Amino acid sequence: MSEEFHRIKRLPPYVFEVVNRLKAKARAEGRDIIDFGMGNPDMPTPSHIVEKLVETIRNPRTHRYSTSRGIPGLRKAQAAYYERRFGVKLNPDTEIIATLGSKEGLANLAQAITAPGDVILVPNPTYPIHAFGFIISGAVVRNIPLEVGAGFFELAERAVRHSVPKPIALVINYPSNPTAQVADLEFYKDVVAFCKRHDMYLISDLAYSEIYFDDATPPPSVLQVPGAKDIAVEFTTLSKTYAMPGWRMGFAVGNERLVGALGRVKSYLDYGAFTPIQVAAAAALNGPQDCVQEIRMIYQNRRDVLIDSMARAGWNIPSPPATMFAWAPIPEKFVHLGSLAFSTLMLEHADVAVAPGIGFGEYGDGFVRIGLVENEQRVRQAARSIKKFMANADSIIAEYEEKNGIVVRHPNAGSAGRP
């Protein structure tokens, strides 16, 4: 009875928990930690959405069980959003299901469609649920280094060719968490053609559809591709668009068979979100959209301050075109330590928390993810601390290596390690 449970054995230690423990310890000591680690929107939910929740919750009839697929008015609101935003027509009864955030939806879809040993193609680095939702379900995940363009398809073709059994699905996520890469409609056309050619389902995570910057073209939906609904399902969420992370409201839309399979699994697991939350979510989708632009501009302003302030501190970070994250390469002096050690040292010496890239997959280890979840003043404060941290890099690294018994060979160091 002491042996580890089978599904738990398939899960590696949660990388982010290392940083979270250090963060909690530092705060318990009274230190002011500037936290860029979690993609947790810090701004209030727009007032008209909150007011609709309050109004609805006063009706005791809404306190009963809801429906796991989502109330009809909410599914119709999502259908109207897709037609308005993407020009895509969806049947609210068969092609839309409300989920408890996109994360729950992705995990339950994995449970619905995966048999033990099935192969799933997943980008790397990527948001952890894209891989671990399927791993928990018994699948085998084959990673594809995250790219957009011809390189992606070359790697994907190789993955299909060397997978036994043949993959049943491909996961994509644009704008990407954590890398902030974007994809255009031409790329989606090629992805749909690729999946049809290999008889695979396509699972798209479009959580950041409304968080894009610099008057760029709004990110498209894969369902805009003619015939995409034959094979594709797409996940969206209200968490970022309307600053509603704690409300846990998302959707899966598209292929009727996939949506139906998800609905069947969910019918055994939950009765859907609390009805007043669903009513308020419908009000968000149907109501004034000025708030979406306001939220977008807040993230854009924070991004601009972050990129400028960190450059002044000696850390050059590419400016993300979308999402609420910056994907920051580890400064050269720290690269050999890896992203977890770098994140730990920055928390210990600069009181700044970031998410180590290794937590998003092996190909993310040369980076950290910085969430745009602190205001401009706090961003500048973090940059000042990081500037001091960078200035003391040599002594910080030497202390860390000595403490952890790390011997680093340098070109002119002979056999003795660090000179």
Task: Explain how this protein is built.
The chain is of the alpha/beta class and 419 residues long. The protein folds into two domains: 151 residues, Aspartate Aminotransferase, domain 1; 240 residues, Type I PLP-dependent aspartate aminotransferase-like (Major domain) (Aspartate Aminotransferase, domain 2, 3-Layer(aba) Sandwich), CATH 3.40.640. Helix content is 43%, strand content 13%. The chain has 14 helices and twelve strands. α3 runs antiparallel to α10 and α5 packs across α9. It starts with 5 loop residues before the first helix and ends in a 16-residue tail after the last helix.
Topology (elements, then pairings):
Elements lengths: L5 H4 L5 H14 L5 E2 L11 H11 L14 H15 L9 E4 L1 H13 L5 E6 L3 H9 L3 E6 L4 H12 L7 E5 L11 H13 L3 E5 L26 E6 L12 E5 L1 H14 L5 H12 L3 H23 L12 E5 L9 H12 L1 E2 L1 E2 L10 E5 L4 H16 L1 H11 L16
Parallel strand pairs: 1-10, 3-4, 3-5, 5-6, 6-7
Antiparallel strand pairs: 2-8, 7-8, 9-12, 11-12
Helix pairs in contact: 2-12, 3-10, 4-10, 5-6, 5-9, 11-13
